[in-house]
Amino acid sequence: MVSRENLERIVAFYALIGAVFQVLLIYFVFYSPSTFIGLPATVWVIVITGVLSLVNGIALYVIFNRAVEG
Amino acid sequence: MVEIVPLVILIIYIVLLLYASYEGFRRTKAGRLEFFVAAGTLGVIASFFTYVATWVSAYGFIGLSTVFYAYGIDWHLFEAMAYPFLIVPLTFIVAHRVWSLAKKYRYITPADLVVHRIGLDIPVRLLLAVMIAYPFIFYMGIQFIALSSIVSGITGLPYHYGLFLFSLTAIIVVGLGGIRGVAYSDILMGVTFLILAVITIIALPLYLGFGYITSAVEGPRGWVFKPSLPPQYLISALFLVSIPWAGLVPHLMTKLYAAQSDRAIYASALGIGISGFLLYSILPIFVGSALAYYWPEPPKVTVREEYVTMFFSQLISPTIAMLLMIGLVAAAFSTIIGIAITLTSIVHVDLLEKTLKLKLSERTLDLIARATVILVMLIGVYSAVSPEHPIVRIAITLIWPGLSVIAFPILIALFWRRANKWGVFLGHLTGFLSLILFQYFIWPEWPHNPFYLWEGALPTMIGIVVTIIISLITPPEPEERLKEFFP
Hints:
By secondary structure, chain A is mainly α. Chain A is built from two helices and two strands; from the N terminus they run αββα.
């Protein structure tokens, strides 16, 4: 079982990597003129961002609750 | 012409809201710990709803859709990008740290945590009171703008009548309610808000046709889908705006103090993930695109937020639009009251009790505190009388910078043993002073710096650098104090 302290370190590292990924997403996708299924890249960046918020929220909720049980 | 039926619906809802506040007030036990932070007894469901409701306001649905339509999609990304990797994951860490300390040491105000960590009592309480009041005035102001735009956009009643109606209601609720009252009305709000979100996503394609977003992209207002802000503006904001929202925004800190358990904190973090997806990412795309499709040229309005409410009123009838927007009314109110309670606790505990050391009864102190907060709120109402910008631009320029200069020195103190009283205090002071200087005197034009960074970037970075450097060149805090924070 991972200790709470180590879990926090892993999540903080994940947040950092994710933020770097977002910087790249903004630089290379948000500012590109391309489209996909008729929608511009700007819309897709926000959709991807929104879905990741939901997925991260649910995944971390499950992980931290299990850590509490452990 | 004024639409009577939606107006009556709104008034009925306001009466229900007042009743929920009164019920909370009646059930509130004596004592300021109970009044301000529910004595740390809010369970998972109440914490989830009250944290999310205080967070959400009308900013996401009305504000982001409006700014998308009026200024372009990058203002929407400004908010949406904050959630997935910074706010949501870090809430599980930072908010949990704030909660666990508050649970152990029974904090009431945000300054309680800082004073406990660094020891400077009166100077910290005074400085933080000013620093927190400054952004909160505008924060309440933008809620009043959104609320009044709901009334004027849907019922046709003039904007300033709506402003008067909501100011009056807010005064009564602030006069009555403690945090428990807010938590009760927040559960009511959560349900109506979810209905609004789901119906909007289903209804817009049905009314406008499934290809309306593509048509909007190709239409005369297609420019709103193209970025116009420089990347350094967005990147600087990504880090410096987002991180404070992981649990270090003052009115959310007191909501964390009110939570009973770890699980309540995790549920709140999950709620932010859901809100980030639905209200701050997906819905503004649906609504903003619908506006661009429906009105290639914006209609004449008193405040720009009326675009959204007028649009729904015209599309699906004023009565149904009001039924849908009721959730927004409650959301905006929840934010106003959350802020008002935090400010009341600051005036009551930090200023009257701990700084001025007034020997008055708790009831008298409370009355003075509430009267002060009502005055502060009225300044917020005044800022809503004739706003120059949409609420999102007001927040990004005036509110978020104020919150970031407060949060970062606290964040450093929470996770870095070497941070000390001089570092944190001077970090706060220099961050706040540079914010005022840059915004009002040195670079009064947007974006208040010569590098096209986010408005709050330079003051926040100054605060961070000063906190670190001063902490390193002055002696560390005594080991006994640090043991309480870093066991």
